[in-house]
TrEMBL record:
Gene: fbp
Organism of derivation: candidate division CSSED10-310 bacterium
Top-level enzyme category: hydrolase
Record-listed Mg(2+) 2 binding positions: D115, D118, E283
Binding note for cofactor: Binds 2 magnesium ions per subunit.
Residues annotated to bind Mg(2+) 1: E93, D115, L117
Signal sequence, start to end: none
Protein name: Fructose-1,6-bisphosphatase class 1
Record field: catalytic activity: beta-D-fructose 1,6-bisphosphate + H2O = beta-D-fructose 6-phosphate + phosphate
Length: 339
């Protein structure tokens, strides 16, 4: 064996030694997120066997049917994290209102926002799903967290990451000193360092979007996709379309191979959704933080995602993220269409 075996906790401690400005203080909080992820992984990995597939009778705040595993993953995240003493408030895709820390538990200096299960409609067909998290510092006065702690712009994140439950289970996270990936070794139950300092290529030929919505997109977005195909052909290498419908899986591939992930606003058609589908605080902002930390770029077409000051918990935003040259080009075409 030629490689070192490094757990997440050990990696955080090493990073802190090398970079005194690195934030090792929430290694314990991360351990609780990891525990929740392992419990979710256990259920996801035997999804076809136990009675966890299918829908509940509930409709969530976004008007979407809640799958059994969404509900399970949400409960696991809340129960694993509400009593650790590090958090003062939480928010989840599945809860309309902020989730307070129960009075009987101590309140801490961090704020957690999460999507407990991303891509859950893919579980029944055995396609990768994930969990996404975003960590902020408490800014409000008083002991317990408030809505203002949750509504902070993404550039203020103290850390962010995702867990992908795929052909292997991986944790990818950043605390502001690069992006690092850890693969779960199920036989020992530990996430071990497998992808240190992930860097996204400067440009890429893979585009990842639901092209079925093409007719509803604005002219600049349409032009970008058409151009992507033409340019790639001109360079004598074809563009590739890759889209699983699980953002965690699509962003994971984009981080590793480069290219662009996009979920634009739908501006034309019978049911326009100009803000698109993805949620700013617990989907786009944490992914934008990781993409930027890996050297890429993320925007809503006009603004840097991390600069957007949120005005509500479940706010949606158009999302373009990936290799910097790809995202710059789609931004240029969107600006041109507005001119
Ligand atoms: P969630 O399962 O948390 O509701 O998120 C699903 C999201 C995201 O993972 C994916 O990129 C997108 O929905 C897919 O939407 P379309 O089916 O409209 O392409
Ligand atoms: Mn999601
Ligand atoms: Mn979800």
């Amino acid at each position: 064996m030629t490689y070192k075996i490094i757990t997440v906790q050990r990696h955080i401690m090493d990073t802190q030694r090398r970079y005194p400005q690195a934030r090792g203080e929430f290694s314990d909080l991360l351990s609780q997120i990891i525990l929740a992820a392992k419990v979710i992984y256990r259920e996801v990995s035997k999804a076809g066997l136990s009675d966890v597939l299918g829908a509940t009778d509930d409709i969530n705040v976004h008007g979407e049917r809640v799958m059994k595993l969404d509900k399970f993953a949400n409960t696991v995240m809340i129960r694993a994290l509400d009593h650790g003493g590090h958090l003062c408030i939480m928010a989840s895709e599945e809860n309309e209102d902020p989730i307070p820390i129960p009075e009987e538990y101590p309140s801490g200096k961090y704020v957690l926002l999460f999507d407990p299960l991303d891509g859950s409609s893919n579980i029944a067909v055995n396609v990768s799903v994930g969990s996404i998290f975003s960590i902020h510092r408490k800014i409000s006065s008083g002991k317990r967290g408030k809505l203002e702690d949750l509504l902070q712009p993404g550039y203020k994140q103290a850390g962010a990451g995702y867990i992908i439950y795929g052909s292997s289970t991986m944790l990818v996270f950043s605390t502001g000193v690069g992006v690092h990936g850890f693969t779960l070794d199920p036989s020992v139950g530990e996430f071990l360092l497998s992808h240190e300092n992930m860097q996204i290529p400067e440009s890429g030929a893979i585009y990842s979007c639901n092209e079925g919505y093409f007719n509803s997109w604005s002219p600049g977005v349409k032009e970008y996709i058409l151009q992507m195909k033409q340019n790639a052909t001109a360079e004598n290498k074809s563009a590739s379309l890759r889209y699983t419908g699980s953002m965690v899986a699509d962003i994971h591939r984009t981080l590793l191979y480069g290219g662009i992930f996009l979920y634009p606003g739908q501006v034309a058609g019978p049911a326009p959704k100009p803000e698109g589908k993805l949620r700013l605080l617990y989907e786009c902002a944490p992914m934008a933080y990781l993409i930027e930390q890996a050297g890429g770029r993320a925007s809503d077409g006009l603004r840097r995602i991390l600069d957007i000051a949120p005005d509500s918990l479940h706010q949606r935003v158009p999302f373009f993220a990936g290799s910097s040259l790809n995202v710059l080009e789609v931004e240029r075409l969107i600006r041109e269409e507005q001119a």
